[in-house]
Amino acid sequence: MACPAAEAGFARREPRDAGTQGVVKEGAHGGTTGSPVLHSMVATKRRFNPNLQRVRVMLAGKAQRAYVCTRCLKAGKVQKAL
Length: 82
Prior knowledge:
The chain is mostly beta strands. The protein has one domain: CATH 2.30.170. It contains 1 helix and 4 strands. The strands form 2 sheets. It has a two-stranded antiparallel sheet. A hairpin with a 2-residue loop joins strand 3 and strand 4. The protein is rod-shaped and about 55 Å long. The two termini are 21 Å apart.
């Protein structure tokens, strides 16, 4: 049940750990590129980054703070610590 957030290569502050599925540490969704189209039809490149939140999650049986994308939180791929 791995989240694509942990595999795609969006750099974050902490090193990646093998037992942290769904938690964004070194890898993430990586974002996509696209073009915002203005009224004048000028299209410049831009990057759509993932929505990462720093939340307390259960990792290896204890609560830790980690960066998690909101898609993974909403899908239930990460268990939040209470």
